[in-house]
Amino acid sequence: RMSKSVTGLMDRFESEVFPVIEQKLGKPKYRLIMGSSMGALNTLTIALEMDQHFNRVIALCPPLFTLSPFDKWHKVMDYAYRTGATPKSVFTIIALGRKWFANTDEWLRFNPIEKVKNVAFKKRPQFYISAGTRDEYGLFEGTEMFVESLRKTPAMTYWRPNSGQHCAVDIYSLAKFLEL
């Protein structure tokens, strides 16, 4: 469980992961990072911290919540009702959030919805973000908020809401985005 302002994982990613990959494959001229669901959350976290390394960022159904795991129960119930999230899904996220974060301040410090509001991109990456409009976790609301904030930055933003539940992906628009 975190209770520090930093985890050190970003530093390790930049100082250990990149060098190992580049040693095996060579230093790329073009770098893309992509993730789905929890991998999309990690993708956004990395991209917002290390944007100078990536030309394109793809986040498919990132778990971006407008709810904190430390919110009062009336807010939790309002969130479930407002977003259409199932109670089981909401309680799962609350349990995970409370396991990994010490308090609301820490949750907000690592939350991409908050981080994107203060990011100063060193270059102009292209983002492809998608989410299902009927996501059972209620993620669509938070993902849409993230995209609205991202559009206020110099980053190019491709937003693809998809009819469907968690991880509904439009493979045709994704393939078009991936065309170099």
Report a brief summary of the structure.
The protein is built from eight helices and four strands. It is of the alpha/beta class.
Describe the fold and architecture:
- It is a single chain.
- With about 180 residues, the protein is an alpha/beta fold.
- About 45% of the residues lie in helices and about 15% in strands.
- It has helices at about 10-25, 40-50, 75-85, 85-100, 105-110, 110-115, 140-150, 170-180; strands at about 30-35, 55-60, 125-130, 155-160.
- It is globular and about 50 Å long.
- The chain starts with 8 loop residues before the first helix and ends with a helix.
- The ordered H/E elements are HEHEHHHHEHEH
Ranges with pLDDT <50 over ≥5 residues? none
Please provide the count of β strands.
4
Structural classification: alpha/beta
Distance between the termini: 40 Å
Instruction: Enumerate the strands of the largest sheet in spatial order, edge to edge or round the barrel.
Output: 1-2-3-4
- Specify the biggest β-sheet: 4 strands, parallel
Globally, the shape reads globular
- The helix tally amounts to 8
Mean pLDDT: 90
- Residues in helices, as a percent range: 40-55%
How big is the Rg? 17 Å
Proportion in β-strands? 5-15%
Which SSEs are present, and which pair or pack?
Layout: H1 9-25, E1 32-36, H2 38-49, E2 56-60, H3 73-83, H4 87-100, H5 104-110, H6 112-115, E3 126-132, H7 139-150, E4 156-162, H8 171-178
